[in-house]
Amino acid sequence: MSPFRAPSESLGVLDAETTAVLVEGMADIAVVVDDQGVVSDIAFGNDDLSSDFNRDWIGQTWLSTVLPESRPNLEALLSEAHRGSVTRWRQVSHPSSRGADIPVQYRALRLTDEGPIVALGRNLRGMAALQQQLVDAQQALERDYWRFRQVETRYRLLFRMVSEAILIIDASTQRVVEANPAAGQLLGDTPTQVIGRPFPEGFNSEGTQAINGLLATVRAAGRAEDVRASLLEGAQEFLVSASLLRQENLSFLLVRLSPLVAEASATALPETKVRYLRAFDQAPDSVVITDAEGRILSANNTFLTLAEIATEQQARGESLDRWLGRPGVDLNVLMANLRQHATVRLFATRLRGEYGSATEVEISAVAVRNGERPYFGFFIRDVGRRLNSEPPVSPEQSKWLDQLTERVGRVPLKELVRESTDTIERLCIEAALRLTGDNRASAAELLGLSRQSLYVKIDRYGIAANQSPETSGRDKPGNS
Fold first, then answer.
1. What are the distances in angstroms from CA 87 to CA 62, 90, 114, 120?
2. 102: left (phi over 0), alpha (psi -120 to 50) or beta
3. If one looks up domain 7-123 in CATH, what number appears?
């Protein structure tokens, strides 16, 4: 501490009032304590701090205003002040009327040999809050660090235990960054020795070209179809797939190598079935295979053309309902009939392309049981060219129209409209039942009616008499 050079000359003009104002302005809290340790006067730098203390200190011992754990520090401060020198800073805590303790740092000086002690205090609540935030941030970082370490450990274990060969490639240099033991075994080396080597390496010219094309496509589009590649030595063939990974400003390629020798021997198809698959893939009608929820597993080129999709990969995993004419209706009707009857024939609807085109189609479908997980095959035929501009009128409809026109002028228009409405409603219900194979639940969904409303209308128009006994019994309201 460096004192004033001439305090009597520079500060000798200060009187008691001026000194009090100076002390109040420079300290958050100023306390005057007599020789017995009793507070004789107190001043606060702001009113907010004054309201935080729960009682008036004047007339109370200063030690009674602090928390029990802070009393040793305050006693040491008073003892040091009694010796007549300026004390060093000591921190104590006062109880607050608002719950949280108030930390204050004091420095004291005895004015004369037998005179009072003046203590100047700094409010440390702001600093304490910052310290608490720092502690909380450090604890959060520590928790995140250990969580990251645990995730990294699980990743390392999974990476080493997986049976498939996996490589992580730097997208810019195409050099191996990481490799699991299975990759080292397949490539005839240890994982440590594989790291840093260019990829692909050790494949024949056709395989190298295919892999380079795969990696280029993945870098540009984010995904690509799997390719086949063979090693330079031996007949070992792999199915190579790749995915793009981004980490901060770097890009990596996750490459998986799956050997095809065991797969080919175990899953080789007879030549006849191979021909079937090729015929389906090149068929002029659309062929789509979906899972039990209607998500596309495979689709041929004709469907991709009608749906205006570039690759089969874009359709996989999507619901077939995305391209059917009545979203939320057509696919539900088809799936309900497939689960009940296993086949659907000539279901008329429209197929919508990605860019707004619409094609009139007929759909036939079949359900194939594969253990507990069935899948569905949809055969979609474009019938737009053979549809007439005007739908054919059935004899029953023609007769009804003739009768309607003959009654014009003899029956009020209001009655004709009511009768026409009833007839049209009956024809729509019959068409929906035909379209859904007499499945009333599906017909109600197709018409936008509740099942109970459809049952009432069927009984009203006597349509139930046209249903087969088996269907009528199955679709009674009590059996649904």
1. 16, 8, 17, 11
2. beta
3. 3.30.450.20
Integer Cα distance of 160 and 157 in angstroms:
5
pLDDT exceeds cutoff 50 at 202: yes
| Crossing angle of helices 451-461 and 413-435, rounded to 10° | 120
Between residues 287 and 325, which one has the greater pLDDT?
A: 287
pLDDT, one tens digit per residue, over 160-169 is: 777 778 888 8
Greatest alpha-carbon pair distance for the chain in Å reads 130
Task: Read off the pLDDT band of 35 (50, 70, 90).
Answer: confident
Q: Where are the domains of the chain?
A: 7-123, 162-265, 270-382, 396-479
Domain covering 396-479: architecture: Orthogonal Bundle (1.10)
What would the mean pLDDT of 453-479 be, rounded to a whole number? 58
Residue type, 206: E
Rounded Cα gap, residues 161 and 178, in angstroms: 14
Quick check: do 7-123 and 396-479 share a fold?
no
Share of the chain above pLDDT 70, in %: 78
Contacts for 224 with CB less than 8 Å, ≥ 6 apart: 214, 217, 218, 242, 313
Query: Does position 474 have pLDDT exceeding 60, yes or no?
Result: no
The span from the CA of 336 to the CA of 376, in Å, is 12
Under CATH, which architecture does the 162-265 domain have? 2-Layer Sandwich (3.30)
Which CATH number applies to 270-382? 3.30.450.20
Phi, psi of 345, rounded to the nearest 5 degrees:
-125, 135
Alpha carbon 268 to chain centroid distance? 39
